[in-house]
Amino acid sequence: xxTRTGTRRFYAVALLVSLLVAGVASYYASSHPDGLxxxxxxxxxxxxxEDSATADSPLADYQTSxxxxxxxxxxxxxxxxxxxxLVLSTGLFWLIRRREPRDREARDAGS
Amino acid sequence: xxxxxxxxxxxxxxxxxxxxxxxVAVSLRGARRELDDRTAPMAGLVATFVFAAQMINFPVGAGxxxxxxxxxxxAVLAGPWTAVLCLSVVLLVQALLMADGGITALGTNxxxxxxxTVVVGWGVFxxxxxxxxxxxxxxxxxxxVGALVSVPVAALVFTxxxxxxxxxxxxxxxxxxxxxxxxxVIGIGEAVVTGLVVASVxxxxxxxxxxARPLLAERELETRAVAAS
Lengths: 111, 229
Prior knowledge:
The structure holds 2 protein chains of 2 kinds.
Chain A (H helix, E strand, L loop, with lengths): L6 H17 L11 H9 L26 H27 L4 H10 L1
Helix pairs in contact in A: 1-3
Chain B lengths: L9 H21 L8 H15 L4 E4 L2 E3 L4 H8 L1 H18 L8 H26 L7 H27 L6 H33 L8 H16 L1
Antiparallel strand pairs in B: 1-2
């Protein structure tokens, strides 16, 4: 198992990929309406959509309010989103995880 | 497929809200079996990656686009119960922070993107794992097929909800045909992304892939049996 990627390295790469996807690559995403929006327009029910109550959020529509450069505006929104996601989801999963002596032994043995 | 506020009437939104709340409650219990000191950080990264990947809309022709939903991906990487929670956190953050997907539609979006795609994606994956040879190299293709099927099914479930609680009087047959057609194409993108991501995790850390663990355990046993003989 010498070729196996180390755990820290694996996590770091995964986080870096998420940051790059949300913070950089997202700028190049298609701006066409998504499947549902497109179908709603074609079949005539798009007008029934209402603005979200959070439409005034500083990060609404993945753009940072007050930042003019679209690349930076979208990039900041993406990076903030990734950080919020990481904290919320990892926090939740850490909180509800199973805590058995078996796990602790395995972890101690592995470190 | 983020549903905005207004597409579905209040009773339907309340109903999907109840379904979503129940699924999250059950998943909070179920996920305990999937999460420990080792797998909890991975699950957090899976949810984070799904959020990031959902920002990438890919064109699917005729001026429309699609993005990863991630139910099958999260289920294969982190386990199905955890996947429901991953997608629920993603949809909550998107609705509150990014105004992506309505607030009253949050239950609908959790139902479609957080429950339907996970149940279908994981169900197809487990079925394939059962009939295919027990090789870790087949985990990614099986995940891709689960992803492929999950998207049009979610589109059909939306159409069903729209038939019950749609606020605009439009031809349901046309909605069903268009939803199914476009989301079958989007499903191909879902399959490609899911297959590539699962394949790269299987290649670097197969032990991090929830859906690959039974196969790894089998291999371990075989290795020990051979070593002992």
